[in-house]
Amino acid sequence: MTLYIDPPTWPGHGRLWSHLVSDASFEELHAFAAAIGCPPRAFERDHYDVPEAHYADAVRAGAREIGSKELVRRLTDAGLRRPKGRPVPGVRP
């Protein structure tokens, strides 16, 4: 069980954001996110958006810091990548 977070370098809504992902399951990701106080609305397809102010909280709780490219590679290798514009498996449009 490993959770990963990339650096807060993604701009949006006047802040910088990180992405939090799991390489095992969405259940693991949702449980970890809830434990560090991420609201369900922060989940987007295959990751949680984490504001820069909460980056250190995620790392202290056990998320491993990695670069953005490595994060996407691990997510893809785990079969959990859900790119924009592609249907989510098991969910009807």
From TrEMBL:
Query: InterPro entries of this UniProt entry?
Result: DUF4031
Q: Which Pfam families match?
A: DUF4031
Q: Which residues form the DUF4031 domain?
A: 4-77
Q: What is the name of the protein in this document?
A: DUF4031 domain-containing protein
Q: What is the lineage of its organism?
A: Bacteria, Bacillati, Actinomycetota, Actinomycetes, Kitasatosporales
